[in-house]
């Protein structure tokens, strides 16, 4: 004890010396001056005191005031200054990987240290921390995972939960667990940080915890809505034909018949009419739907292009931030802008993108000053709304939508629609323009639509399937999942919980009594969706690991096959070249990935991707995820050290197909052939359609009675995305649980079906597999 104490004391002194010498260096002083200019600094003493005196404190303040980068740092600095640096251990959670990474990088540079010294980060499958790390930024998922094995968070002194206003599922989950932990860890400090005003909700959840508000200063931002924008840009649209070019949608077409001056009022009237016709009292999900379908994309790329043009030609200097719905849209728009005479000219406009999976070099550029007389334009997803602050933004373009998953518990279907954002989000987006000087925000929708937005967004816990969450709750040794979740800020519907439990039983992660099975235990530590985790384990057991690894990595990153709006057909044809008549999007993905590896060896990766409508960046992400999964499975003892053994059967297409089926079950649809067409029915007898980009959508007939699919998505109608054809025997053998009993039964049947795999060498393999399974599942 006392030896350790001495070591820590000595280290604390060293930390203090280092901190002081940095703060006294010229560079350190400059950094300190900047930090002192942030609004959070004025509240520093008050904050430190509140945290010292209360177990829980709720802090709110406008985005950019210095919550994330400063507050945890204040604690660290004051502990170090008081000679207790080595004794403290601070965790600060972020909802997104990317913000954990950028923020930790920023804080370590503010401290004049390389990342991984006193400040580090950890996100899923990646991290940078060392033995001297005392302030760790991590995703909320990582802290939850840690809580599974370390129920009391031993050794942790402070936990910051950031961005709680977003009401992410992991944050809501964390709060339940931490609330339960606090009485057991009287010395632990919990600090909740939020950007907007509903701090009292969190305070009362923690029995009236004190709230501190950091007053911020931002410049006024003028809000322009679609009607204003039309007027501003309208005079340049000298003829209505041009308007048509600017958006092919219904609304614009209607405008064609109207006199120019009437345009503005007419648009408002049209939208209002649509709203009235449906006679909605309040905002409801139906309004959501009707609005989305009524003005589908008046928000087209062309409108954004027109607004950007207007800003670049007519407005003062200043960077532009464009909020879009997702990576797909961002990359399409970026490509479109490249061809534009003004916006595509790198000497005048610097177009950058900002989204969850961008490369580090590009991340840095976003924060940097552009060359003189070049205007910076950043195309961003929702993440630039609150988690990332770009200082020099003067203009914001807000498309009014965000991709969010909603969950329909009744049909047990997740829906992924770009849907209208909330008023709180719209205001938040607007605020991003007023950081350095008065700004302007171009909302690409009429004001009356804004007024129909929900005030706040629904918490994620109430709008996503709970499969993964329930598995994690179970591994906290919780008796009743429903009971546990009823302690949430806003508990989910019982039906949603029941669906998740049923699902976990179906895949064999829970037994009949809702206890974790061996498989369930494995799945709860693998950082992927339980379904995909199961597929990985099966791929390892059945010795066809490599192709399965690609499939799982692909499904957890995103589809590398691009689908540009204007070249859908060409892209579809390009993808179908990878399908080799085996009726499988997953196999097509495997081939495309392997083709890319070959092309890379020959130095033609770029051409390969271009020719085949593949995203180089996504393929790279899949590549690195593959490596990380391999590492984790090795670590869990599920892989042989000898790669060849794991892949002995990788060439066996039927087996790969079977393992895909085992992972994706119960995502299964029957193929119903009619004379000239096909239709597809899921297990619950729902009709589904194939996504346009699926290789299976290109066939007249499918040579398999079943399709397994990863995802059912509701976009007006229900679609299935990627699918693979499977036979009756595969479905019987592999569509089900992986508990030993059932598996042994399956293996017996397999022996009977031996020639269906057309590989006699498998027979001997089954005996081995049986032994292995036995060993594996008894561990
Ligand atoms: P909050 O969490 O309150 O939204 P942050 O702590 O993230 O605010 O940021 C505070 C300020 O620090 C920002 O306004 C910005 O000036 C600066 N800042 C944050 N991240 C970076 C970065 N990566 N590069 C440069 N400056 C940054
Ligand atoms: Mg922040």
Strand content: 15-25%
Euclidean distance between termini CA atoms: 35 Å
What ligands can be seen in this structure? adenosine-5'-diphosphate, magnesium ion
Shape: globular
From the alpha carbons, calculate the radius of gyration and give it in angstroms.
28 Å
The low-pLDDT segments are 235-299, 751-763
- Estimated structural class: alpha/beta
Number of beta-strand segments: 23
* Major sheet size, sense and barrel closure: 8 strands, mixed
Tally of DSSP helical segments: 34
Mean pLDDT level: 82
EC number: 3.6.4.13
Organism: Rehmannia glutinosa (Chinese foxglove)
Family: Belongs to the DExH box helicase family.
Protein name: RNA helicase
Structural features:
seven-stranded mixed β-sheet; 47% helix; ATP-binding; eight-stranded mixed β-sheet; globular; RNA helicase; 23 strands; binds adenosine-5'-diphosphate; single chain; 779 residues; binds magnesium ion; alpha/beta; EC 3.6.4.13
Map the helices and strands.
Layout: H1 2-24, H2 26-36, H3 39-42, H4 44-53, E1 56-61, H5 67-81, E2 90-94, H6 97-110, E3 119-123, E4 126-128, E5 135-139, H7 140-149, E6 158-161, H8 169-181, E7 189-194, H9 199-205, E8 211-214, E9 221-224, H10 226-234, H11 240-245, H12 250-256, H13 263-278, H14 285-294, H15 301-314, E10 319-323, H16 327-338, E11 349-354, H17 360-367, E12 375-380, E13 393-398, E14 401-408, E15 413-420, H18 423-431, E16 439-443, H19 447-452, H20 467-475, H21 481-485, H22 494-506, H23 518-525, H24 530-541, H25 545-556, H26 568-576, H27 585-601, H28 605-612, H29 616-635, H30 643-646, H31 653-664, E17 668-673, E18 678-682, E19 687-690, E20 706-709, E21 712-715, E22 717-720, E23 723-726, H32 728-734, H33 740-752, H34 762-778
Parallel strand pairs: 1-7, 1-8, 2-5, 2-6, 3-5, 6-7, 9-16, 10-12, 10-13, 11-12, 13-16, 19-22
Antiparallel strand pairs: 3-4, 14-15, 17-18, 17-20, 18-19, 20-23, 21-22
Organism: Rehmannia glutinosa
Domain Helicase C-terminal: 303-477
Enzyme class: hydrolase
């Amino acid at each position: 004890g006392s030896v350790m104490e001495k070591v820590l004391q000595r280290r604390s002194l060293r930390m203090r010396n280092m901190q002081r010498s940095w703060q006294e260096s010229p560079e350190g002083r400059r950094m300190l001056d900047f930090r002192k200019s942030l609004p959070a600094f004025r509240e520093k003493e008050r904050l430190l005191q509140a945290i010292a005196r209360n177990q829980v404190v709720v802090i709110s303040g406008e985005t950019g005031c210095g919550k994330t980068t400063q507050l945890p740092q204040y604690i660290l600095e004051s502990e170090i200054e008081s000679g207790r640096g080595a004794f403290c251990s601070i965790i600060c959670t972020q909802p997104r990987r990317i913000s954990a990474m950028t923020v930790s990088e920023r804080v370590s540079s503010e401290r004049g240290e390389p990342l991984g010294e006193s400040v580090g980060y950890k996100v899923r499958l990646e991290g940078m921390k060392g033995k001297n790390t005392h302030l760790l930024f991590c995703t909320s998922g990582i802290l939850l995972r840690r809580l599974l094995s370390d129920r009391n968070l031993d050794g942790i002194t402070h936990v910051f939960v950031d961005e709680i206003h977003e009401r992410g599922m992991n944050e809501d989950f964390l709060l339940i667990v931490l609330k339960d932990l606090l009485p057991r860890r009287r010395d632990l400090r919990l600090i909740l940080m939020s950007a907007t005003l509903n701090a009292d909700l969190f305070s009362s959840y923690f029995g009236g915890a004190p709230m501190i508000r950091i007053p911020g200063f931002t410049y006024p931002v003028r809000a322009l809505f679609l009607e204003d924008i039309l007027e501003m840009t309208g005079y340049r649209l000298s003829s209505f034909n041009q308007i048509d070019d600017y958006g092919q949608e219904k609304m614009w077409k209607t405008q064609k018949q109207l006199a120019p001056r009437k345009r503005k009022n007419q648009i408002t009237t049209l939208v209002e009419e649509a709203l009235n016709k449906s006679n909605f009292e309040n905002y409801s999900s139906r309004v959501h739907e009707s609005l989305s379908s009524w003005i589908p994309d008046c928000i087209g790329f062309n409108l954004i292009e027109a607004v950007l043009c207007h800003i670049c030609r007519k407005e003062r200097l200043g960077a532009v931030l464009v909020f879009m719905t997702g990576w797909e849209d961002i990359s399409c728009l970026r490509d479109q802008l490249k061809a534009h005479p003004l916006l595509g000219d790198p000497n005048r406009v610097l177009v950058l993108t900002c989204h969850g999976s961008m490369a580090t070099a590009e991340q840095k550029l976003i924060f940097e000053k552009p060359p003189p007389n070049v205007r910076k334009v950043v195309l961003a997803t929702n993440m630039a709304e609150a988690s990332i602050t770009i200082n020099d933004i003067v203009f914001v373009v807000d498309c009014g939508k965000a991709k969010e998953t909603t969950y329909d518990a009744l049909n047990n279907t997740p829906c992924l629609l770009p849907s209208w954002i909330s008023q709180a989000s719209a205001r938040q987006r607007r605020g991003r323009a007023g950081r350095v000087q008065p700004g302007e925000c171009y909302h690409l929708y009429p004001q009356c639509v804004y007024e129909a937005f929900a005030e706040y967004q629904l918490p994620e816990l109430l709008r996503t399937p709970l499969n993964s969450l329930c598995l994690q709750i179970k591994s906290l040794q919780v008796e009743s999942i429903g009971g546990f979740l009823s302690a949430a800020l806003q508990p989910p519907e019982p039906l949603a919980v029941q669906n998740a439990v049923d699902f976990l039983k179906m895949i064999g992660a829970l037994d009949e009594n809702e206890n974790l099975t061996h498989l369930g235990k494995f799945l709860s530590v693998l950082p992927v969706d339980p379904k995909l985790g199961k597929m990985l384990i099966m791929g390892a057991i059945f010795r066809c690991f490599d192709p399965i690894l690609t499939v799982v990595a692909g499904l957890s990153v995103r589809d590398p096959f691009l689908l540009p709006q204007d070249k859908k057909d060409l892209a579809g044809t390009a993808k179908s070249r990878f399908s080799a008549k085996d009726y499988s999007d997953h196999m097509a993905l495997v081939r495309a990935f392997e083709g890319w590896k070959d092309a890379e060896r020959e130095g033609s990766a770029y051409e390969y991707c271009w020719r085949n409508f593949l995203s180089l960046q996504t393929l790279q992400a899949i590549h690195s995820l593959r490596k990380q999964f391999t590492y984790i499975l090795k670590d869990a003892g599920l892989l042989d050290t000898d790669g060849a053994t794991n892949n002995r059967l990788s060439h066996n297409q039927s087996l790969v197909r079977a393992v895909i089926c085992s992972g994706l079950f119960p995502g299964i649809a029957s193929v119903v052939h009619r004379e000239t067409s096909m239709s597809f029915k899921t297990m619950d007898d729902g009709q589904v359609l194939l996504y346009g980009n699926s290789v299976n959508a290109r066939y007249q007939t499918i040579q398999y009675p079943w399709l397994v699919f990863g995802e059912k998505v509701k976009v007006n109608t229900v679609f299935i995305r990627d699918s693979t054809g499977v036979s009756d025997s595969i479905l019987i053998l592999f569509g089900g649980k992986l508990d030993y009993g059932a598996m042994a039964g399956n293996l017996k049947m397999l022996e009977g079906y031996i020639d269906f795999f057309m590989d006699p060498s498998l027979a001997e393999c089954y005996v081995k597999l049986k032994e292995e399974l036995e060993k594996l599942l008894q561990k």
